[in-house]
Amino acid sequence: MGDHKPSLTEQRLDLALKASNEGIWDWDVARGRIYYSNRLLGFLGYGRIGAPNIFAEPEEHVHPDDLRDFTRKLERVIHRGGRLFALETRFRTKEGDWKWFRVRGLPQRADDGTLLSLVGSLIDISKRKFAEEALMEERRRIDMVLDRVPINVYFKDRESRFVRANLATAERMTGGELKDLFGKTDADFFIEEDARISREEELHIMQTGVGLEESLVKKRWLDGRETWALVTKKVWRSLDGDVLGIFGLTHDVTELIEAEHDLERLVETLRVVNQEASEERSLMRLVIDHIPVFVYFKNRESEFVLVNKGMANLVGEESPEAVLGKHDRDYFNEELVRATVRDEQEIMRTGIPLERKLEKIRWKDDHITWSVSSKYPWYGPNGSLQGTFGVSSDVTELVATREKLERLTMDLGRQNRAMEEQLGLAREVQQAAFPEWIEPIRGADGKREVVFHHRYQPASQLAGDFYEVIRLDDQRAGVLVCDVMGHGIRSALIVSMLRGLIERQREHSGDRPGTFLTELNDGLSHLLERTNQIIFSSAVYAVIDLEVGELRVASAGHPDPILRRGGQVVAMGLGEEERGPALGMIPGFEFPEVVLPLEGISRAWFFTDGVFEVLDNVGEEFGLERMKEALARGDDAGEAIESLLKAGETHARDGGFGDDVCLLGFDFLFK
């Protein structure tokens, strides 16, 4: 700050902002001096004497990761005529710490466009930034967990293309690289028939919402491999309930199935030669004890006559011999015992095996596990029925993961529905504030009339754009168009605040545009002064006075209205000194107003920036020139609005406006 002594204006501004959470700065570029408010000095840890110019020497005070963006935006305002300096960045405090700040600045220029000064605000947003970083860290930890789960977790879009997956999925499908998986479909990995079946299943899930539950699926790969997996698939929806695709869980059980097949072949061989010598029996015992599944033989009364070590460990016995002669009722609850005996009796009666059945196992102590089991009839050497034999594998962890995901899906669904209901109600309330028809105003002599036309098209559930027509008397009306920064609930709340302030001010200053915006700015600044966020709203307010034949206009950082005057469609062209900053930015600012004669003006349009900022496929903005060309068409201001909307939709890369659209037009009719 050097030896700069604050002027009287600077002292008043500092006093006006003592209760605010914002710090104010004023950089006199021409003289190379800068002024900071006490609040801003407190942010940076400096006293009134010796504080550096953090804007003139960014290399010394701006974080290296933010420096490029900071200098680029500052250069745009200083050298290329930019209207607003705005960004979030980190500054070094006097103690050497880095703090996050939201910075806003408005340039003040001479008549020839030379930059005289930058005036703006600065507020500490470190807490929010640290919270965002904590959220990112939480997401990273979730990704770390998913990448260490030995189950394939993946998401596919509506075209069945992989869009997200964990590392286990990448290792199974591509050998370990996620980038080689994204954008591909099953047709890139499996034979045509298997890929077609998978696609049909996923289309059915997306159309009906009915998922695939723990299905055992055989997959044939393009490289000739054959694998088996337990597959669960569910519909994937957005927060708004729109179907985005499917998500799935795949547990590769190829080794288990191959072991089951190997065991089946082995058991069949043993069934034929079980009368051979004891050394052959010892060999069989050695094999089944080391197969990584649970093996058991039961007699016709469903009593265990042979189990492997894995089965003995499962039921809590010290050795396979301790299980012999026992029954399922010794380990499991009665309901499961009845179902098991019924299955085994049916197998022995029909000779038909029960293959790959997913079973819920409830034990005598009421704890629950899950298994996939196959059971077969057991015949002796002479072909006589001996009982049954079976193989099982424990899939409890897989089922628990599936159930956890299902509960999470249900919870998210309930939250989404509740949020949708609340947003729908708020949208209805907000829409109800806009009239379907606005009554014209007429001159006392009956020869002059103003007819209003309007179009309101929000881009989301809750919007930040709105308009008001305030009828002052039979020959005068105030027209207001506002654009609150952002979208959603926060913007809608600011809209409600502004409308409350408007209702309170309409009787007091509705006929004086400059005073009206000044009081609206002070009211909004007072309401927001205890928050830690900066929220702005651009606005333009005009009074149409048929009695004296004038249009009085005041602007708060808003796009200039467009007029049809003398057969030409032109922007109103307010100068820098004829407009003020956005509402809520600088408390106490006194807004100027401009007076235009109605003579020669046949139409006028007030609007928000969503109308002209729409981009085409190459990123080119629709712009004010195209907007004026479209408004030149039509027999009245209403038809011109429809012409403008059609032109904007044709220009847009997706056929629609990405931001709120708010248009208020009026025809001046003179008989």
Descriptive report:
The protein is an alpha+beta fold and 671 residues long. It has 4 domains: 8-130, PAS domain (Beta-Lactamase, 2-Layer Sandwich), CATH 3.30.450; 152-252, PAS domain (Beta-Lactamase, 2-Layer Sandwich); 256-397, PAS domain (Beta-Lactamase); 430-670, 4-Layer Sandwich (Phosphatase 2c, domain 1), CATH 3.60.40. Helices cover 35% and strands 29% of the residues. It contains 16 helices and 26 strands. It has a 6-stranded antiparallel beta sheet with strand order 16-17-26-25-22-23, covered by helices on one side. It has a 5-stranded antiparallel beta sheet with strand order 2-1-5-4-3, with helices on both faces. Helix 13 packs across helix 14 and helix 15 (623-631) crosses helix 16 (637-651). The radius of gyration is 37 Å and the shape is elongated. The two termini are 63 Å apart. The mean pLDDT is 83.
Summarize the structure.
This protein has 671 residues and is α+β, with helices and mostly antiparallel strands. The chain has 16 helices and 26 strands.
